[in-house]
Amino acid sequence: MAVEIVSSTSVIQATSVSTIEFEHVNVSSTYLVVMLCLRNNNDALISPLTVTYNGDSLTQQKIRAKNNWNTTVFTLENPSVGANQIVCYWSGQLAFGTVIAYSINGVDLDDPIGTPVSGAGQSTAPTKTASSEIGGLVIDGVTTNAGGSGEVLTVGPGQVEYQNENVERSGTFMNGGSSTEVGAASVVMSWTGPDRAWSLVALPIKPAALEDDAPLVSLMMM
User: Which residues, in sequence order, are bridge partners of residue 73?
Assistant: First the structure.
């Protein structure tokens, strides 16, 4: 069974805050991924940082920062069904940026993710390679500095763009993006844009095994 995105909710936070809260509807999916791309007021990782869905705590799988530009991803197995609130909270500093939530099906809930990878630097091409598998899916998030509203990102080949926003807060600009790519042994997640500071996180999602066909084989042998 292949991993598939059932729905997503994308939000922009254009003022500096310590909490971002929004509604996400989960109809029937078994896995929730929340990707945050944030520009904070301090030159460091945003920590501590928590995310909840309908009051249930998500697990932080990876965080990476380049100066003020933070990218982090959280997950939750068997999220509550219905329209519920996602609450992202951090203390000690303020931040602005983008958040996206993905409802996902076809995930191996016994072993849902591979090894998250991350990178940070300054260049025109934020890039990271993740190990995945056929039937799986890689989800990434990228956060970059931006010199103005005209500086935008372009998603890499083979990726499906779900979020790509240029956000301004009082004359300070940042880009936040997120995309997916179907699984393979090696999956390159990349973006291109101006020569700016960036951080990128990529999360491989593992597919559920195919249903056991032993009963069918038994019937055929009778």
Answer: 35, 62
Identify the pLDDT of residue 210.
Answer: 75
Tokens of 41: 């007021």
Distance CA 98, CA 57 (A): 20
**From the CB of residue 97, how many other CB atoms can be counted at a distance below 10 Å?**
27
Q: What band does 212 get if pLDDT is binned at 50, 70 and 90?
A: low
pLDDT value at residue 28? 92
Query: How far apart are alpha carbons 82 and 218 in whole angstroms?
Result: 40
- Look at residue 41 in the predicted model and tell me its pLDDT: 87
Q: What percent of the chain has pLDDT over 90?
A: 89
Instruction: Please spell the DSSP secondary structure of 98-162, one letter per residue.
Output: EEEEEEEESB-TTS-B---EEEEEEES--EEEEE--TT-EEEEEEEEEESSTT---EEPTTPEEE
Write the CB contacts of 175 (distance below 8 Å, at least 6 apart in sequence).
Answer: 37, 142, 143, 144, 145, 146, 151, 152, 153, 164, 165, 166, 167, 193
Instruction: Confirm if 65 and 121 have CB atoms less than 8 A apart.
Output: no
DSSP label of 80: P
pTM beyond 0.85: the answer is yes
